[in-house]
Amino acid sequence: LDLRLVYNSVAVDAGNTAYAKDATGSTTLSTDLDGGARVATKVANVDMGAYEFQFEEPSTVVTTDLDVVDVTDGKISLREAIEYAAQLGESTVSFSEGLATIYLNSTLELDSSITLDASAVGGVTLDACRFVDAASAIAINEGAKVSLVSLTITNSSANAQDWLREDNDRPEYSGGAVWNAGEVILRDATISGNVA
Q: Mean pLDDT across the chain, nearest whole number?
């Protein structure tokens, strides 16, 4: 019988780190039964039970061009870096060397103030060519202040006819590359090949 936790277990992050002590209660446990870190990341609580689910360490540096959310693969996608920035109280997401194009699978929703900065790597392209539905590549929601630095946004195709329908509650269907209800600053950015 394997009692190791799976990603979506209710026991993940459900423990109280203050009680993760040895039998005497005086020493904080540093490892789980497998020898893995007892608290897997700096933004997590201890898991319930003898095993700790081993998440990737949160980071605001994008390390993969894949548009996925998989907290176990050890790679940081743009979507994950944005979420980790919010968890860590950071305001800038940057990109590692070697990244040229990220093919987005759906609209990138930005709900809080953040800077996406690719200047250190000479720029990164966000390509929306894989979208199934016509939509903006980026949706900046009300109250968010977003800076896009050294990014190229291309191949978005927002459908104006969908936006004009009375029953449409999906604002990302308008705006071409960027739908903005907040505040956006473009610096050394290129928006081309998009349709609104």
A: 86
